[in-house]
Design goal:
This protein has 133 residues and is mostly helical. The protein has one domain: 2-Layer Sandwich (Muramoyl-pentapeptide Carboxypeptidase, domain 2), CATH 3.30.1380.20. The protein has four helices and no strands.
């Protein structure tokens, strides 16, 4: 199938293999960890900040893409329902069942959720703090 500029044909959506996306994310996190720790002032907090900020930007873009044809959410409950039912399935291919976590490697997903909340007009923020156990 060839792509043309003919307006009579609609183009199929551009999709990326899940395996390719998983490998890309693994390499991205590894690269951020390696390059940040090699900086003179690089430490774990700098890595966490970079991962959360990257997730934040991705969360904003995901909301732009997946809510463009929806009416604006009127209250916080609608926002939470959208994130828990729709966005969670898009990200993790399963419905949210429990918000418990082991607090390990959650900076990127937390950033995605913070970016989504910000794009949906929610003013509250939740930060992830690391601690050694």
């Amino acid at each position: 199938m060839s792509y043309s500029d003919d307006s009579n044909h609609s183009l199929p959506p551009r999709l990326v293999s899940e395996a390719c996306m998983d490998l890309f994310l693994i390499e991205m996190v590894d690269t951020i960890c390696r390059t940040t720790t090699s900086e003179p002032d690089g430490d774990n907090d700098a890595i966490f900040f970079k991962l959360e900020y990257l997730g934040y930007l991705i969360g904003q873009k995901l909301i732009e893409r997946f809510t463009k044809d929806r009416p604006r959410f009127v209250d916080t409950l609608d926002v939470v329902k959208f994130i828990c039912k729709d966005l969670w399935v898009i990200l993790f291919k399963k419905q949210i069942d429990n918000l418990k976590t082991n607090h390990r490697y959650v900076w990127f997903p937390c950033g995605i959720i913070r970016g989504a909340l910000a794009s949906l007009g929610t003013q509250r923020t939740k930060r992830v703090y690391s601690h050694s156990t």
